[in-house]
Write a structure and sequence with these properties.
The chain is built from one helix and twelve strands; from the N terminus they run βββββββββββαβ. The chain has 167 residues and is mainly beta. The chain starts with 5 loop residues before the first strand and ends with a strand. The mean pLDDT is 88.
Length: 167
Amino acid sequence: MLENGWGIDGRVIARTAYPITLLGTLLSDPGNGSQYYTNLNLVPNEPIYLYGAAYPGGKAINRAAFQTPTGTNTGDAPRNFVRGFGESQVNFAARREFAFSERTHLQFRAEAFNIFNHPTFGYVDPTITDATFGQATMTLNQSLGNVASQYQQGGPRSMQFALHLAF
């Protein structure tokens, strides 16, 4: 608590990128009819990622670095070695408490989420047969569900104001 009933709160969120399970060809198991995706084969001497302003978030998985396996081969690309995007976000709040009596007080609060408006990308298309393979197709807040963006990590900068009366 600062002077005259003022207070501030801050929160920094940071994490590394989650792994992406790459998907090759969709196959059917003749024994039980269940469907599954094969893994992919690595192509030697090809970069795994491409970088540049043409890609959401500045990077994409290089399609040329992978091939679909032939037949029922499962593929030789290691599991979980390709990564999506990390996350960093700073949230900040300022509040002031007004006391009316010993048991009654009012709190005003202003909160800012993602104050630096840093874009955070989420879902990366893992299916090699898709036109958007290896590219981020959603921001993180769109990838996590349908909660309002100010309550979800990775959304655009947003603010909210609140009054809380306690008695």
